[in-house]
Design brief:
Number of domains: 2
Number of helices: 15
Radius of gyration: 21 Å
Strand content: 15-25%
CATH class of the largest domain: Alpha Beta
Strand order of the largest sheet: 7-8-6-5-4-3-2-1-9
Distance between the termini: 28 Å
Largest sheet: 9 strands, mixed
Low-confidence stretches: none
CATH topology of the largest domain: TIM Barrel
Helix content: 40-55%
CATH architecture of the largest domain: Alpha-Beta Barrel
Number of strands: 15
Mean pLDDT: 96
Structural class: alpha/beta
Length: 383
């Protein structure tokens, strides 16, 4: 099993909370696409030792994910050009998941019908909220009406695997409106929901506005209450809370997300994209112009880090603890050694006693109480 992530670094407008790599200028878009095609060729051997090959000597992949940025800003012809280059070196498994992140304002029925003719079979729609004041606070470009219409258009175009993002903890988002946001997606039977807590990241416009007292700050208690509401509401609608920020209907969990949490090798393409092949992690430069200039010279501008036992252990704790399956003590012992298992047992014992963690056979899993403290618990368990 292996996957590919493609970072498309363009947006029409900057969201105030976002700290991902993006640009609101499209002047480099053509050059970026040409360099992306070249990087696909330059990186073709990255996954080779860690995934099987077909009879045609191509590598098999389970997931292909277009993220960003705003990948739905690509013309369908540009998307097809990228897919064609991918298929020069890779072959999709029969049940492969091919996801396109999209903003609601891009998803006209005409565009969706064209996308449906490609191998894209899953949409991840950045709705964030169905309330206009929230969208204004976040500096989102679309309207509540466009958000609803994008879901309707996706169904009409024939998509059978739709995910939607929401944000909670927005200071002006009342509990009543948060419930309405969740109920709206559930009533439209959206297959997968990714609710994220609003986080004030350094150097973002939102951080600046809060410091200048031009925007209300996030309140942890307000966000925690909405987190608990979210679990209760979505589980009542038949969604499984399989990861801290992800709920899916049975059979609709994100394969792309699962690949990160299950330590599956993946190749990241484009500026700021990360890659992992069991032995090293590498990440491309977070600058589109620098990325383009290096690729033109036949060089992938990236940094690499070998994965030590300690690093591997800490990453396993961080990722697995966030899932409904938790940390496997047998895996810790076999992969990282008995001393780290003893460390894990010692550090987790107090959280088990206070009800933040629970044991289920060989697994240690977050309780609903523990999910509110997931990052702190994970850091306390680190080597």
């Amino acid at each position: 099993m292996a996957g590919i992530y493609i970072h498309v670094p363009f947006c029409r407008q900057a969201c105030y909370y976002c700290n991902f790599h993006y640009s609101v200028s499209l002047k480099n878009k053509d050059e970026f696409i040409n360099c992306l095609l070249e990087e696909i060729k330059l990186q073709k051997d990255f996954l080779e030792p860690f995934t099987e090959k077909t009879k045609n000597n191509k590598l098999l992949i389970d997931t292909l994910y277009f993220g960003g940025g705003t990948p739905s800003m690509l013309e369908v012809s540009e998307l097809i050009k990228i897919l064609k280059q991918i298929y020069e070196y890779y072959e999709l498994k029969e049940d492969a998941e091919v996801t396109l992140e999209a903003n609601p304002d891009d998803l006209t029925i005409e565009k969706l019908l064209a996308i449906k003719q490609t191998s894209v079979n899953r949409l991840s729609i950045g709705i964030q909220s169905f309330e206009y004041p929230d969208l204004k606070y976040l500096n989102r470009l679309h309207s509540p009406g466009q958000a609803l219409q994008s879901i309707k258009n996706a169904y009409k175009a024939g998509f059978e695997n739709i995910s939607a993002d929401l944000i909670y903890g927005i200071p002006i988002l009342t509990h009543e409106k948060w419930q309405e946001n969740l109920e709206t997606l559930a009533n439209y039977n959206v297959h997968h929901i990714s609710p994220y807590c609003l986080t004030v990241e350094p150097k973002t416009p939102l951080n600046v506005f809060i410091k200048r007292q031009q925007a209300e700050n996030v309140d942890e208690n307000h966000a925690s209450e909405q987190f608990e509401m979210m679990i209760d509401i979505l589980e009542k609608h038949g969604y499984e809370h399989y990861e801290i920020s992800n709920f899916g209907k049975p059979g609709c969990f994100s394969k792309h997300n699962l690949s990160y949490w299950e330590e599956t090798p993946y190749l990241g393409l484009g500026p700021s994209a990360h890659s992992y092949n069991c032995k090293i992690r590498q990440w491309n430069v977070r600058n589109t112009s620098e990325y383009i200039n290096n690729i033109k010279k036949g060089h992938v501008p990236c940094e690499k880090e070998p994965i030590s036992t300690k690093t591997g252990f800490n990453e396993y704790i961080m990722t697995s603890l966030r899932t409904q399956w938790g940390c496997n003590k047998n895996k810790i012992s076999k992969q990282f050694g008995q001393p780290l298992l003893e460390h894990f047992n010692k550090e987790s014992s107090s959280y088990i006693k206070n009800g933040s963690l629970m044991e289920k056979g060989d697994y240690v899993i977050l309780t609903n109480k523990g999910k509110l403290l997931a990052d702190k618990i994970a850091s306390d368990l680190f080597a």
